Amino acid sequence: MKRMLLLIVLSLILCLLPGCSSPPESKEQLTVELVRQLAEKGEGLTWDDLAPYEYDSEAGSGRVVRFYIVEPSYLLLVSGDTAEEKPQTARFVHNRNSEQYIDIRTDDVDAFLEENPPLESQP
């Protein structure tokens, strides 16, 4: 009887433990304005600069590649050899045409936005 009671108590504790863990860290969604701010860092952009922001997926065979959703109209695709080194690319892409992109570290974000307006403001 004591053994059965001990088993029940242990089972309850094990069931409740996942609820005691801290919630996953909430990350901020990237916006066009935040992309502008990141672009000001130029070639100095680091993975730490991107750490506060939520990314949709991470892929790559031997490389770090992260896909950040920027509002409904854009993506920021950042890649590099390792997360310890600076990213080698930071491509800002319009969802309508993935062949239209700039590297936010070296190109003009505002000019790109003027040529590629958000989807909701197009006729």
Description:
The protein is α+β, with helices and mostly antiparallel strands and 123 residues long. The chain has helices at residues 2-20, 32-39, 47-50, 109-115, and strands spanning 57-59, 64-70, 74-80, 89-94, 97-103. The protein has a 5-stranded antiparallel β-sheet with strand order 1-2-3-4-5, with no helix packed on it. β1 and β2 (64-70) form a beta hairpin. It is globular, with a radius of gyration of 21 Å.
Keywords, separated by commas or semicolons:
five-stranded antiparallel β-sheet; 123 residues; disordered N terminus; 31% helix; alpha+beta
User: What best-fitting shape do the alpha-carbon axes yield?
Assistant: globular
Question: How many whole angstroms does the radius of gyration measure?
Answer: 21 Å
Question: Spatial order of the strands in the main sheet?
Answer: 1-2-3-4-5
**Class of secondary structure makeup:** alpha+beta
In the predicted model, the low-confidence regions spanning at least 5 consecutive residues are: 2-23
Major sheet size, sense and barrel closure: 5 strands, antiparallel
Strand content: 15-25%
Please bin the fraction of helical residues. 25-40%
Beta strands, count: 5
Give the N-to-C terminal Cα separation: 74 Å
Number of helices: 4
* Averaged pLDDT: 82
Order of H and E elements: HHHEEEEEH
In short:
The chain is of the alpha+beta class. It has 4 helices and 5 strands, in the order αααβββββα. The chain has helices at 2-20, 32-39, 47-50, 109-115, and strands spanning 57-59, 64-70, 74-80, 89-94, 97-103.
